Amino acid sequence: MAPASEGTASAPASSAAVRRLRRDLEALQSSGNSQILVRPSEDSLLQWHFVLHSLPDDTPYSRGCYHGKILFPSTYPHAPPAIVMITPSGRLETGKRLCLSMTDFHPESWNPAWSVETILVGLLSFFTSNERGYGSVQAPDEHRRKLALESWQVNAASSVFTVLFPEFRNPTNSTDSTSSAPVQSGLGSSLVSGERSETNEANEANDASESNANDSRSDSVDPARDLEAAVSDSDEPTECWICRDTTSEPLIQPCLCRGSMSGVHASCVEEWIRHHRRTATNDAPPQCSVCHQPYHGSERMPGVRDFVRHKCRDFGVQCIRTLLLVLMLMVYQVCAQAQSSSLHLTLPLRILGISACAVLGLYRFVVLLVSLPPYRLPPTSRSLLPFFISEPKLLALHIAEASASVTVMVFWCISGFMSWPYFAPFGAAAMMLMAKLFCRQPSADCIGRCGRILLCILL
């Protein structure tokens, strides 16, 4: 299933996401996992880098050091993060989102109780196994051992890696004690110390998070089972198991969970249900992602008035976008064919109209150039991040509007309503976007879907 992310590293992190990430980071530092080291990026709170090292000797990766990053959505923990490997390993592809049950490729199976450590332990288990999946690579063990030896040199060539993980610049400097080293990143430090005034609450949250994190590490990784095993009937809930906060609204127990995993904020449950409704594969009643039992209480479905208001708002927005698109096309056509048009426009007005349409067309071109192909990683350049669109529906709307504009211009050129030189820039931009898509070697299914979309637009 394709990912359905609701935010990117370019979107600002919500306060709930910052609190939850701070708790997860504290739990990771307390657990002292000897094979995983995590540090937040210096550029974004929603981007963390990690290192997999000291792997088992019976695997071809034992002498390697593997760098990757986690991209959290702005709505975390209600939406799953994306995981990208950077160091070649012969096991997982680099520079692409990995398809795991705990990533944004499967939002329907996401559990907000899963911590960052749970996610990385699951990744480590998948990494050292021979399971196949989207993003996995089939390679002989000899090649993987060679890449493991070369991984140190590859990592040393990365400026981001050397800044965040200086102790892993070469094998001789790396020790097992680095897994418990303090975070050196500025943003990481602010995450940890952002709410130090809440000393008592933070200590309680650390105890609960450390207990959950220690339970989540086992030889056979099953996050759902581990979370259920962490529930103890003798422990009272000290924090919301979704946002990990202990200082805001009172905790409730809306399901059959007991112990430290039973307390949750009503607002967190409501937000989780709303998110789950958007990604669920069926119409089953909302249930707890830990005990898998339906929530207590009743679900109020929107009435006819709310439904009509929502549909009217969406229809109104789409009508405005369509009218603006038609107006832009008509202005461009009139300005391009001013001599044969009944409207006698002066040269300054023609230049102004063509320039305005060119700016709008350039904006649309940059958006598609940065955002295509769908589900790609956000650009590393900060100047391009505002143009990046990760939401599939919004990106599909931009593609449809661009395709409709090009189709109308081609029809005008063929019918003689507009000369071909005025179409040339738009045609060249469309060819560049098509070339970029086909250079990624799309599958036959992907090409078929694109063809059907274009056919619907033309008809």
Automatic annotation (TrEMBL):
<dbReference type="GO" id="GO:0016740">
    <property type="term" value="F:transferase activity"/>
</dbReference>
<keyword id="KW-1133">Transmembrane helix</keyword>
<keyword id="KW-0812">Transmembrane</keyword>
<dbReference type="GO" id="GO:0008270">
    <property type="term" value="F:zinc ion binding"/>
</dbReference>
<feature type="domain" description="RING-CH-type">
    <location>
        <begin position="232"/>
        <end position="298"/>
    </location>
</feature>
<dbReference type="Pfam" id="PF12906">
    <property type="entry name" value="RINGv"/>
</dbReference>
<dbReference type="InterPro" id="IPR000608">
    <property type="entry name" value="UBC"/>
</dbReference>
<keyword id="KW-0862">Zinc</keyword>
<keyword id="KW-0808">Transferase</keyword>
<dbReference type="Pfam" id="PF00179">
    <property type="entry name" value="UQ_con"/>
</dbReference>
<feature type="transmembrane region" description="Helical">
    <location>
        <begin position="319"/>
        <end position="339"/>
    </location>
</feature>
<feature type="compositionally biased region" description="Low complexity">
    <location>
        <begin position="185"/>
        <end position="215"/>
    </location>
</feature>
<keyword id="KW-0479">Metal-binding</keyword>
<feature type="compositionally biased region" description="Basic and acidic residues">
    <location>
        <begin position="216"/>
        <end position="228"/>
    </location>
</feature>
<dbReference type="GO" id="GO:0016020">
    <property type="term" value="C:membrane"/>
</dbReference>
<keyword id="KW-0863">Zinc-finger</keyword>
<keyword id="KW-0472">Membrane</keyword>
<dbReference type="InterPro" id="IPR016135">
    <property type="entry name" value="UBQ-conjugating_enzyme/RWD"/>
</dbReference>
<feature type="region of interest" description="Disordered">
    <location>
        <begin position="171"/>
        <end position="232"/>
    </location>
</feature>
<keyword id="KW-0833">Ubl conjugation pathway</keyword>
<dbReference type="InterPro" id="IPR013083">
    <property type="entry name" value="Znf_RING/FYVE/PHD"/>
</dbReference>
<feature type="transmembrane region" description="Helical">
    <location>
        <begin position="351"/>
        <end position="373"/>
    </location>
</feature>
<dbReference type="InterPro" id="IPR011016">
    <property type="entry name" value="Znf_RING-CH"/>
</dbReference>
<feature type="domain" description="UBC core">
    <location>
        <begin position="16"/>
        <end position="167"/>
    </location>
</feature>
<feature type="compositionally biased region" description="Polar residues">
    <location>
        <begin position="171"/>
        <end position="183"/>
    </location>
</feature>
<protein>
    <submittedName>
        <fullName>UBC6 protein</fullName>
    </submittedName>
</protein>
